[in-house]
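Thread: quick sanity check before group meeting

JM: Hey all, I'm pulling together slides for Thursday and realized we never actually wrote out the predicted structure for the chain we discussed last week. Dropping the sequence here so it's in one place. If anyone has concerns about the input, flag it before I start.
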Amino acid sequence: MATYKKGFKKQTSEQMLLQVIVGVIIAVIVFVLIAFVYDIATRVPEYSDYTKVEKYEDVFTQEDESENPIEKYMVYFYFDECEGCSDISKDVLKLANRITKNGGVFMVANTTDMTDKDTNLDDFLDAIEVTTGLQAPLLVTVVDGEPAGVYVGTDAVVDALTSVKEGTYEPFN
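JM (edit): ok, ran it. Output follows.
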């Protein structure tokens, strides 16, 4: 291969083209990796990402994949037309995401989709000691199959989830 006077080797046009192609391929791979990491880091979960409770009678009897009872978990009740539920949905989902990443169990229940409203709603309301009817947003924390806390309203739900996320929620400690 020929060299210039200062000792640098001459490159053929094919070698330069190969270097350009390799550079473009590396740049594309880097951009794809950055986009992938960004998507994972900024993705806001959706309600469908969590276990869905569809019956009021099942709220206090949740089991894991091995059919063992779950000791501590939360069930968040909402309905699609609820303005307060819509207002806090991003906050609730972000907090739930952090809670589940730290090993907590978070479930959702869309009150519109509950299949046993006619037969078990009153028993559920009695169990959580709510006499004014089902209101959303509502968060029920469960410890050993019993309600440990009931939080009604936007501020109460977000505050309770924040406490769970921070590890200061007393019933779970």
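AS: nice. The chain has four helices and five strands. Residues 24 and 30 are 10 Å apart (CA to CA).
JM: adding both to the slides.
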